[in-house]
Every structure is written in C-alpha cells, then in structure tokens.
Amino acid sequence: MPHLSTYFTLEEAAGAHGVKRLKEGLDTLPGVTSVSVSDSGCVAVDYDTTGIRQEQIRQKVQDLGFLLKEQE
Q1: Half-sphere exposure in the Cβ direction for 59 (13 Å, CA)
Q2: What is the mean pLDDT of the chain?
Q3: Which residues, in sequence order, are CB contacts of 31 under 8 Å at separation 6+?
Q4: Which of 70, 58, 49, 51 shows the shortest CA–CA distance to 22?
Q5: Smallest Cα–Cα separation from 36: which of 28, 25, 44, 27?
Q6: Contacts of 27 (CB under 8 A, 6+ apart)
Q7: Over the stretch 11-28, which tens digit does the pLDDT of each residue have?
Q8: The pLDDT of residue 39
Q9: Would you say residue 1 has pLDDT above 70?
Q10: List of residues 6+ apart from 38 with CB closer than 8 A
Q11: CA distances to 24, 40, 61 from 46, in Å
C-alpha cells in the first residue's frame, strides 16, 4: 500500500473547535491514516493512495467549510 503525505494551509486558523471538526471530517475518508493541524493553520494528512487521492482530501477540507491558501 503506497502511502503519501499532503499539506495544506488554511486561510485562517481553525481554532480548537474547527481543528476537531476538521480532524473528525478527514478521518471519515477511506485511506486517511493521520491528520494534524497546527495552531498556524497548516494541515498535514497521511494517506494510503489506494483508498483516496489528494484532490479528494482537498475537496473534503473545503466541504467542511475551510478556505485554503493557494499554493505558490
């Protein structure tokens, strides 16, 4: 099973409640093995590539109501 990590930066820090909601939401995705969110709004997701793709993770973050900074 190939494993990868992907990283996103939130437009705004999520706060304790938002971090919990984000982690719980991403944990429901098949293939996601761990989620961490820093106080500054950096999101790191480890996942199994046989279960999910990076774009699906990005979409779930947005579906949960979080805006992502565009990658430069």
Answers
A1: 6
A2: 91
A3: 47, 48, 49, 50, 51, 52
A4: 58
A5: 44
A6: 35
A7: 988 888 999 999 999 999
A8: 84
A9: no
A10: none
A11: 14, 19, 14
Enter the tokens of residue 7.
């990283």
Cα(68)–Cα(48) distance, integer angstroms = 22
The string of pLDDT tens digits covering residues 25-38 is: 999 999 999 999 99
Average pLDDT over residues 2-6: 92
Pairing of strands 32-37, 3-9: unpaired
The token duo for 38 is 């820093």
Phi, psi of 16 (to 5 degrees): -60, -45
Q: What digits encode the pLDDT tens for the residues 50-69?
A: 889 999 999 999 999 999 99
Helix intervals (H) in the chain = 15-27, 54-63
